[in-house]
User: What shape does this take?
Amino acid sequence: MTRPRSGRPARRGPRVVRARFRLSDLPGVTVAPAFGAAAAGEAASRALSRAGLGHLGGHLALRGLGGPPRVADLARAAERAVAVALRRAR
Assistant: This one.
């Protein structure tokens, strides 16, 4: 851990992941380049399949704030983004 000039340990801010998913008629999920993008894409595909829409696809855009996001955070954000996109589409 690095110490700032004040002598106190550096604080790590909260990791925030923002995700946006756009539905498409083409099968498959594309993901904007990011660390852990493969896991997030798989999570988005699973969420579509659980909703009975596995034949659809879309584009997932991920943005991390605060620090390097964990893969689990990316996957959770992807699932939520798919759920929001499906609610808006109905």
Q: What stands out?
A: The first helix runs from residue 37 to 50. The beta strands are 16-24, 28-31, 57-65. The chain has a mean pLDDT of 86. DSSP finds two helices and three strands in the chain.
